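We close this part of the discussion by returning to an individual protein. Part of our work consisted of pairing the sequence of a single chain with a tokenised description of its backbone. The amino acid sequence and the backbone structure tokens for this protein are reproduced below.
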Amino acid sequence: MEQPNVQHYLTELRANIAVHDPIKAQVLLSYFPMLTPQLQRRTLFELSRCDSEFAVPLLAQLLTAGAPADPVSATLQSMLLEKLLEQPALLITLLEQPEYTGKQCLVELAGEMQMEAAVPCLMTMLHQETERDSLLTILNTLGAMGYPAATNVLSHYLYADAQVPVTAAARGPAKLATPTAAQR
């Protein structure tokens, strides 16, 4: 893909934000990895100015699609966290949507926010997940959140055939410190 014209890109992005057109905004954001760092920062600035309901799905799409280098990725993640703090229920909506494939960053945000309302969704994801890294992220997040209802789900992985899930599953109930967790 060719580098877009900076002025046309920003004008179109602002227009899409003004009329709340997420489809056209997503098309523009598909160029994000190829933009110059300066234009990436400007794009994030424009998204930071719009309301959470419009910005959160776009930011999550950028983050789950694999944002570029560390400084931009860190900015993107902190901006998404800030927007999610305004409307936390949007995180559950994002976790439940199948079009977001790399949800590890969203799972980590749920843990960072200590969002108990996300626990049932995380437990459902745990049963459906087959990728090792995603599985570990969910196990670690559930354990770190300290939600007692997750004890049974976490203890199921104590008998996994690989050491890494067993370690992650053992740390979770240890943090829960409930009688059931201690028994498991």
Observations:
- The CA atoms of residues 64 and 103 lie 6 Å apart.
- The two ends are 53 Å apart (CA to CA).
